[in-house]
TrEMBL record:
The keyword Transmembrane helix applies. This is Cytochrome c oxidase assembly factor 3 mitochondrial coiled-coil domain-containing protein. Residues 14-38 form the Cytochrome c oxidase assembly factor 3 mitochondrial coiled-coil domain. It comes from Arabis nemorensis. InterPro entries: Coa3_CC. Keywords: Membrane, Transmembrane, Transmembrane helix. The chain crosses the membrane at residues 17-34. The lineage of its organism: Eukaryota, Viridiplantae, Streptophyta, Embryophyta, Tracheophyta. The keyword Transmembrane helix applies.
């Protein structure tokens, strides 16, 4: 396997950095595309926040009334 002819002048560590940069760019591209495709809302976080709010109301300590 000859590899990419344009990268033949680079050393092995430099080639690894180029590949790592390309893979990182690909991953971020897929992430942002996916977030845009689903509307960019974090529905799970909103549901967690709503649950925590309800849980906080239910678990507030009951103060006994003094007679």
């Amino acid at each position: 396997m000859a590899g990419f002819p344009g990268l033949s002048f680079l050393g092995p560590k430099s080639k690894n950095m180029v590949v790592a940069g390309g893979l990182t760019a690909f991953v971020f591209g897929v992430y942002f595309y996916t977030m845009r495709a689903v509307g960019g809302t974090d529905e799970l976080q909103m549901a967690i926040d709503k649950f925590e709010d309800q849980k906080g109301v239910e678990t507030e300590p009951k103060v006994p009334s003094k007679v």
